[in-house]
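Thread: heme C complex, take 2
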Amino acid sequence: MNAKAHSPAAPAERTRPLYGVIAEYKDVDSLVAAARKVRDAGYTRWDTHTPFPIHGIEGAMGFGMTRLPWFVLCCGLTGLTVAVLLQWWTNAVDYPFLISGKPLFALPPAIPICFELTVLFSAFGTFFGMLGLNKLPMLHHPLFEHEAFKRVTDDRFFLAIESQDPKFGLESTKALLASTGVCADVVAVHGNGDKGVLPNWMKNFAIVMPILLLVPLAWIVTARHSTSPKTRLQVIPDMDQQLKFRNQTRNVFFADQRNERPRVEGTIPRGLLREDQHYYTGKTGPGESDWATKFPAALSLDEAFVARGRERFNITCAACHGQTGVGDGLVSQRATGKYPSWIPPISLHAENLLAQPVGQTFSSIRNGIRTMPSYAQQLTVEDTWAIVAYVKALQKSQAFPVEKLSPEERQKVQ
Ligand code: HEC
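Output below.
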């Protein structure tokens, strides 16, 4: 009786479209032979269903190469293009940021992102392309309603030809399949894929759920764009809200009721004792221009000291000022003319600098001067003095008056 329910005579069948015909086989060989026959007859919309993978079935079914690789290639190239455009636009157009006169956009640093996005887009292309080309996800298939088809997971092999096939004819296709080694009658299967198989409550759920999911989002958007006297709701508070005394507020714990405590007279933080004003600031008095004209007595101005200064100068300063100090460092050479905002470094042999007290040069390096930043983080105080000593030596080497040379020396120079 049960099998009768699926015969073409059952009333439900007449209202449902014809899916195709299905033939049943007992073994692999008959299925493969039948597949060859169907292939040679020129059918295109048909499939075989087996309990386990069969080697060579794709040849018997006449499968060509899939279109997936082309799809993946397109996705990969899209990823590559997006990566190049994204990096070029953000770095060179939207937010150009000049670093040591380097080009705003160049290929070598862009390669990792290009690689990543190419792989990412290709992976998405492969995954979703495979699903799409196989028309997945498919919630239901008409073959599932065919009682005998259940054995496909056990010990039977099936070949189904869809009615959508241009070569399909109910009687002729049935006859073709019957002429292969079938083990049961070839039967027609009705049904309309996965349309209309979802129960109504599931459909309603699928409509209502996404709308409900929008509610928290809408709430977040409203919260972000409106003000409220209440404290913000913090899902992950980290250490944002801590028990602490805020600046400029009252604190009854102290007699003066101030939260900020004044510095205790006569104390300094550990390791920050800077008693030697000359050594640490380059000044000899409290005035604006009480610059020291001599090096601190604690330093021994020997050859090793100046050599150390030359080494530090070439590492820290030469990039801008150049090794001779005339201002032709590599960074400056690269940036000059190319970027209008670049201010070239001053020549260290400028008239005013030759007469500059050593304390002032020291201060320029420690504190920065106009557009030149401070180099206090890169240099110890002693190394800074060493650089000053070297800069002074450098200046002497360039501006030595000819009159002061002895006749023999003058001969040599000429
Ligand atoms: C990033 C580039 C750069 C580096 C590195 C650099 N300078 Fe400069 N320096 C400048 C520029 C630019 C000026 C001119 C500043 C101005 O006039 O706005 C300048 C000015 C100076 C001056 C003149 C100050 C004055 O009184 O007019 C001295 C001296 C000097 N630098 C020494 C040094 C020393 C020593 C170092 C290494 C510790 C150094 N600079 C490292 C860019 C640099």
